[in-house]
Amino acid sequence: xxxxxxxVIRRIIIGWFLFIGLLSLSFxxxxxxxxxxxxxxLGEYATPEDIARLNETLGLDKPxxxxxxxxxxxxxxxxxxxSFFTGRPVLDDLLVRVPNTLxxxxxxxxxxxxxxxxxxxxxxxxxxxxxxxxxxxxxxxLLAVPEFVLALLLIVAFFSVLGIAPAPxxxxxxxDAQPPSSTGxxxxxxxxxxxxxxxxAILSHAALPIVTVGVxxxxxVSKIVRTGMVQALASPQIEFARACGLRPLQLFxxxxxxxxxxxxxxxxxxxxxxxxxxxxxESVFSWPGVGGWSLAGVLANDIPIIQGFxxxxxxxxxxxxxxxxxxxxxxxxxxxxxxxRIRITSRFLAKKG
Length: 353
What we know:
Layout: H1 2-31, H2 37-42, H3 48-58, H4 64-75, H5 90-125, H6 130-144, H7 147-161, H8 186-192, H9 196-233, H10 236-243, H11 248-276, H12 278-284, H13 290-299, H14 303-331, H15 333-352
């Protein structure tokens, strides 16, 4: 147990240094972007004196290293600066918009995982039979469809034709009651103020974004599951279990356990990918989330917003990989034993030295 605790602490320490590296990378990469924020703010008719004055106000006239150390020291206390255009603190905008994105992204990814495991498992169980071939054709078509096209098709089908989904006008329509602002995020304000009708309207508007994310990522997840399950079902241990007369459900459970590490790793990968692709979904559905906010910041060359989004996206990926490392170690007896052996060997070498 001590070996596992030490392993988790080591991963957290490594994650902290990686976070510093992420902050540095986001600062230098964004600083290398072409264009001048001062020119973008003042317009094409701004004089050099006006641009120099605004650069001084924004702190952009300082040397690069001076700005870097200011950025790192401020980021350590949660200060990512203010937007050049709105003047609002970047952290405040992030705290308001991240819940708006999570309200459709988390259920969408869980839906993708559920659909991917079901369809991938069925295709593997019916390998090279008509069900598997039908799955191969369907998943190949889905993989070829871009995310925004899938979103538009769902809007046409469920809003325009069937009329069972609300219009893609954001989280609330004009007829829905706006809850009083306490946190700034409508997703949190509605249940806190007891506006359950507005909260239900938010979930209703989130249905199509959830389905879009779920269906879009279900295809690659199911491909990973199918490949892993085909190999697992043909492994000697599963063949032995089948020869012993175990029921198909038990065989399926053993096969899922064998590939769960692969599924967890791929889930973390699509988590990072879905956050970076949130701008597409939010543009199509007029959703006031972190993706659309960051896209507007990129188009306006708003450096603090771009840096804040890169840090949030990178931190989410980093946290996902740390959790994955720890979960894989705890779930797999082989890696648990390896961690314990490393600890015993280290103590032995320390005593010998």
